[in-house]
Design a protein that fits this description.
- InterPro entries: Anth_synth/Amidotransfase (IPR050472), CarbamoylP_synth_ssu (IPR006274), CarbamoylP_synth_ssu_N (IPR002474), CarbP_synth_ssu_N_sf (IPR036480), Class_I_gatase-like (IPR029062), CPSase_GATase1 (IPR035686), GATASE (IPR017926).
- The chain is built from 10 helices and 17 strands.
- By secondary structure, the protein is an alpha/beta fold.
- The protein folds into 2 domains: about 190 residues, Carbamoyl-phosphate synthase small subunit, N-terminal domain (Glucose Oxidase, domain 1), CATH 3.50.30.20; about 220 residues, Class I glutamine amidotransferase (GATase) domain (Rossmann fold), CATH 3.40.50.880.
- α8 links the parallel β11 and β12.
- Bound molecules: glutamine (GLN).
- The site of glutamine has 11 residues, from β14.
């Protein structure tokens, strides 16, 4: 099937990014199979969904093709942080905001620890073509940056239509392909999109973990950015971060709370973690299916939570903590990806607007006795947090570090440090 399926969701704008604008009623101008309007030549990029849907566009970024899951992100800002969030490994991000790339890119706004390893989204879809960057911090055009990171991109389509399609049908498996000459073997691409087994059952945390391969960094290693004056060595508390694809801003926020952070690979044993004598243990975010990490991460976490050391998990770390406690995780229909999601903290009754990026969730009904749901999504009621009764163990599904996104949930870092302080007999910091 071609893209007629997308027609019912056409917006009032023409779907082309650079072509002549049409002003007809909703639905007019939606012609996904037309020859690309920005040129007289044929399309230079294709998005081929597993059901055979073909979306033609203009190629940007790296050339080649890749199998991945297509998701949409509704954040208005922070494209560089989004695309370098290692949790997006194995995914193509469709930005619902139409103009992406206007401020270019720089070396400071990345979220992955090992840029050379290019952990992060493998593909991107934009509505408009990338314009020349206009920002004093811009060091590189987004197109060149995508190329350098090996991210394959497509622009010039109605991303609202694609987003609506995903909302209706769920995040699809797909192949994104970019060839400057517009030469594609459509049947092969369709077969590859169909053949990809998807993120369910796929363990990517081991790949995204910075220390997993000595090719990138020596491990364990000490984070050293974001300290007010003194370096990590002078920090008061010691947090060991199990790195399943951790974002930089998480580590920065720990640094800002006077923590030295030792980052260890995803497969580090519980004994090795405990030998580092941490005051607190952090379970990071990361890509892939949490249940697929059952062989290494979950058994380690199960041992760590038997101690009395405070434990805090974010996103993948939250899901794996849930598994270690005996709960189940499940694949979501379309997932949550954005910077404007309302979440309620049951422990305070307050609502926070948060950053989200997940396609799996902890099944609330499966939480065992003694494990309490602390946070819930006000969009769809899915679980967004848990804590263990009588222990200093908690985790959240959303991204309190944001980057990009609102900082409403920063208090969760203080909640964790207060557990550490409490154990040392120190007074608690104000949470908010
Ligand atoms: N941001 C994350 O840690 C994502 C966790 C997991 N890979 C998911 O998609 O649900």
């Amino acid at each position: 099937m071609r893209c007629d399926k997308l027609r019912p969701y056409a917006c009032e704008h023409n779907w082309q990014s650079d072509g002549p604008k049409t002003s007809g009623p909703a639905g007019n101008g939606m012609k996904m199979t037309a020859t690309a309007p920005w040129t007289t030549e044929k399309p230079t990029a294709l998005l081929v969904l597993a059901d055979g849907t073909v979306i033609e566009g203009k190629g940007i970024g790296a050339t080649g093709k890749v199998q991945a899951e297509v998701v949409f992100n509704t954040a208005l800002t922070g494209y560089e942080e989004i695309l370098t969030d290692p949790s997006y490994l194995g995914q193509i991000v469709t930005f619902t905001f139409p103009h992406i790339g206007n401020i270019g890119t720089n070396d400071e706004d990345i979220e992955d620890l090992t840029p050379a390893a290019r952990h992060g989204a493998v593909g991107v879809i934009f509505k408009a073509d990338i314009t020349e960057p206009s920002n004093y911090r811009a060091a590189k055009h987004l197109d060149a940056w995508l190329k350098s990171r090996g991210v394959i991109g497509l622009c010039g389509i109605d991303t609202r239509a694609l987003t609506a399609w995903i909302r209706e049908n769920g995040a699809p498996n797909a192949v994104i392909a970019h060839d400057p000459n517009g030469v594609f073997d459509l049947e092969t691409l369709k077969a590859e999109a169909r053949a990809w087994s998807g993120l369910e059952g796929l363990d990517l945390a081991k790949i995204a973990s910075s220390g997993q391969s000595s090719q990138w960094v020596q491990t364990p290693w000490i984070w050293n950015e974001g300290y007010a004056e003194l370096g990590a060595d002078k920090a008061k508390y010691h947090v060991v971060c199990l790195d399943y694809g951790v974002k930089r801003n998480i580590l920065r926020l720990f640094a800002g709370l006077d923590c030295k952070v030792t980052v260890v690979p995803a497969t580090t044993s519980a004994e090795d973690v405990l030998a580092m004598q941490p005051d607190g243990i952090f379970l990071s975010n990361g890509p892939g299916d949490p249940a697929a990490t059952g062989e290494y991460a979950v058994p380690v976490i199960r041992k760590l939570i038997k101690t009395d050391i405070p434990v805090f998990g974010i996103c993948l770390g939250h899901q794996m903590l849930g598994l270690a406690l005996g709960a189940r995780t499940e694949k979501m229909h379309q997932g949550h990806h954005g910077a404007n999601h309302p979440v309620k903290d049951h422990t305070t009754g307050k609502v926070e607007i948060v950053s989200m990026n997940h396609g799996f969730a902890v099944d609330t009904k499966s939480l065992p006795e003694g494990v309490e749901e602390t946070h819930v999504s006000l969009f769809d009621g899915t679980n967004c947090g848990l804590r263990v009764a009588g222990k200093q163990i908690f985790s959240v599904q959303h991204h309190p570090e944001a980057s990009p996104g609102p900082q409403d949930s920063h208090y969760l870092f203080r909640r964790f440090i207060n557990m550490v302080r409490g154990k040392k007999g120190e007074a608690a910091l104000a949470e908010r």
